[in-house]
Write a structure and sequence with these properties.
Layout (H helix, E strand, L loop, with lengths): L5 E5 L3 H13 L3 E5 L2 H8 L6 E5 L7 H11 L5 E5 L4 H9 L4 E4 L4 H29 L8 H13 L6 E5 L5 H10 L8 E5 L5 H9 L16 H4 L4 E5 L6 H13 L1 E3 L6 E3 L3 E6 L3 H6 L5 H7 L2 E5 L9 H8 L5 E2 L1 H9 L5 H15 L4 E2 L1 H7 L28 H15 L4 H8 L3 H8 L11
Parallel strand pairs: 1-2, 1-3, 3-4, 4-5, 6-11, 6-12, 7-8, 8-11, 13-14
Antiparallel strand pairs: 9-10
Helix pairs in contact: 2-3, 13-15, 14-16, 17-18, 18-19
């Protein structure tokens, strides 16, 4: 089977058509040549072509009709127009109609080769752009239960509006994926989807990340840099861990939401943008507002449309369908393996489930994953082998905590989780359902400073 690119060539002049066909074949292309626009349009409805090269003036339907038909079928398929009437008006009209390049007769070999290079590069960039856009928004959430279905139905109702959305839920519940769904189901889907994790950026750099800066605004600012609000103009800006913002940054974010404009760091000109903001947090913002840690006016600006994502342990009917959706082709979970998955509490929610399933698929000795493998990888730490683990009868996990001071329980929980994560503080914060900055503040307490044990 041929893997060469297939070109549709349409030209009513036999000598020109023969020359172009040989020149294209010399470039390693497979060519189907016809003598008029009617035949070219008929072939477009019958075959798949990679590139179209068409004369502009032909009997019957001309090159403009061939161009229009090709773009209607596949907008990204390159079309090169060839004309003996190479005026500026012809070129402008052709380009506005979607032509990727235009060549004047008699066509030279060098000009044809350059045109092919240009249209191939453009097509590759379009494919890369489509891939990167898909990567930025990710796949749509897998709907397999009433809780997720209710969230998706809510998004369908609010996505077409410009209202801000606040997504609440524990770490690992899929807040970023839900934010991407709000974007892709809105009328902004063709525009940028820009993300920023507010807890992952140092406080001193967060303003520049959001609003950009002018050259010389601070040490190291050698040139102007656009911020996330500018990059998201016309699209959606997703602010993850918005509850970790300082009071000063909260005030600046509130101004943008109220007025739709901002000033770059070191600048003096207001920049107007049209950005839909979707924020997310795993914090109890109502409690933070009551304690004075989060502005109430900003909270109400963000919480126009609240979306609550329940933890995976509260929707056990979704565990097995989700696990199956994460399996690699050819890998199957046994019935007892699925039962073992349902017995786990999933403190890391969907992210932890996906991580475990990916690990099991990679390490499974065969096509079946059984309960022994599942039990082993649901224990704290990485096992040296995959032994069969027998689940012990459930006991009351809170009995031993009764009567102890709350501060001691919290400190012990942080220490044990830090050891379980082998000192990884980001993973520790995720499992505890708090921000990284909050965990760092807790670790400043001398009673929590302890080298994690293996």
């Amino acid at each position: 089977m041929s893997t060469r690119e297939l070109v549709l060539l349409a030209d009513d002049e036999p000598l020109s058509r023969e020359f172009l066909q040989e020149a294209l074949q010399a470039q390693g292309l497979e060519v189907v040549a016809v003598g008029d626009g009617d035949a070219a349009i008929a072939l477009l409805h019958q075959q798949q072509f990679d590139i179209v090269v068409t004369d502009l003036k032909m009997p019957g339907q001309d090159g403009q009709a061939v161009l229009a038909t090709s773009k209607a079928q596949q907008p990204e398929r390159p079309v090169i127009l060839v004309t003996a009437h190479g005026t500026m008006d012809v070129a402008i009209t052709a380009m506005r109609a979607g032509a990727d390049d235009i060549l004047e007769k008699p066509v030279g070999l060098a000009e044809l080769e350059l045109a092919l290079t240009r249209v191939r590069d453009r097509r590759r960039l379009l494919c890369e752009n489509r891939f990167l856009r898909a990567e930025s928004t990710g796949h749509e959430p897998f709907v397999c239960g009433p809780a997720t279905r209710a969230v998706v139905e809510l998004i369908d109702r609010v996505a077409p509006s410009k209202a801000t959305v606040l997504i609440r839920g524990e770490s690992g519940t899929g807040k970023e994926r839900i934010a991407a769904l709000v974007h892709t189901r809105s009328d902004r889907a063709a525009r940028p989807f820009i993300k920023l994790n507010c807890a992952a950026v140092a406080e001193s750099l967060l303003e520049s990340e959001l609003f950009g800066h002018e050259a010389g605004a601070f040490t190291g600012a050698a040139r102007r840099r656009e911020g996330r609000f500018e990059l998201a103009d016309g699209g959606t800006l997703f602010l993850d861990e918005v509850g970790e913002m300082s009071a000063a940054m909260q005030a600046k974010l509130l101004r943008v939401l109220q007025e739709g404009e901002f000033t770059r760091v070191g600048g003096n000109r207001s920049i107007v943008v049209d950005v839909r903001v979707v924020a997310a947090t795993n914090r109890d913002l109502e409690r933070d507002v009551a304690a004075g840690r989060f502005r109430d006016d900003l909270f109400y600006r963000l919480d126009v449309v609240p979306i609550f994502l329940t933890p995976l342990r509260q929707r056990p009917e979704e565990i097995v369908p989700l696990a199956r959706s994460f399996l690699r082709p050819g890998i199957t979970l046994t019935a007892d393996a699925e039962a073992a998955l349902q017995q786990w509490s999933w403190p890391g929610n969907v992210r932890e489930l996906q991580n475990v399933i990916q690990r099991l698929c990679l390490l499974a000795p065969g096509r079946l994953v059984d309960a022994a493998a599942v039990h082993a990888w649901l224990q704290p730490g990485r096992p040296d082998a995959l032994p069969t683990v027998v689940l012990q009868p459930a006991t009351d996990p809170y009995e031993a905590l009764a009567g102890r001071p709350l501060a001691d329980i919290e400190a012990e929980l942080v220490r044990r989780t830090l050891r379980r994560c082998q000192g990884n503080r980001t993973r520790t914060a995720e499992l505890l359902g708090i921000g990284v900055r909050t965990l760092f503040n807790k670790l400043k307490d001398d009673t929590l400073v302890e080298a994690p044990r293996a």
